[in-house]
Amino acid sequence: LLMLTRLSRKWGWLSRWSIATTIGIGSGLAIPVMIQARILTQLQAGSEVALKYMNALHEGVKYLPGYPNTELWKVGVPILIVGTLCALMYFFFSVPHRGVIGHAAKIGIWVLMIGFGASFGYTVMARLSLFIGRVLFLVKDWLHVLPPA
Smallest Cα–Cα separation from 92: which of 82, 81, 104, 76? Predict the structure, then answer.
């Protein structure tokens, strides 16, 4: 009922309390769930990769599951860890970006640009694949220009 007081000039200020309460409750319920789902899960997965890497190096393992018949994981995992830390350094604004932190932040910018570029390229390729599928449908099945496979 307080939200409906927005329709009155005299009592419209009362609607702010109900709207503030609704937004506060919604944020209080959504923010912890989003932090758990989007941030903590990724931190856990990243730390598991780092721990698996450290254990494998300590034990002298040559091959890791997921990286069959190659030792590239010894290069790829450190790049992943350093790239993640440098990208986080770029968003660390409470310290000036000078010296080591400045260099790490510049590397972090490059890591972010490469990541966003790869994501955009993947999106373009997915759309192109959908377009090719539609064109083949039109040419083969609808217009019968090409013989069906």
Answer: 104
- Token readout for 143 is 């217009």
pLDDT-derived band at 73, boundaries 50, 70, 90: low
Residue 112 · residue 106 · CB < 8 Å: no
Q: Do residues 87 and 108 touch, judged by C-beta distance below 8 A?
A: yes
Write the DSSP string, 15-65: HHHHHHHHHHHHHHHHHHHHIIIIIIHHHHHHHHHHHHHHHHHHHT-S-BT
End-to-end CA distance of the chain: 64
pLDDT, the chain, mean: 87
Helix 99-136 vs helix 73-90: crossing angle, to nearest 10: 110
Report d(CA 110, CA 63) in Å as an integer: 29
pTM of the entire predicted model: 0.57
Q: Dump pLDDT digits (tens) for 45-61.
A: 888 877 877 777 777 77
Cβ 12 vs Cβ 6: under 8 Å = yes
Integer Cα distance of 3 and 108 in angstroms: 46
| In contact, 56 and 64? CB cutoff 8 Å | yes
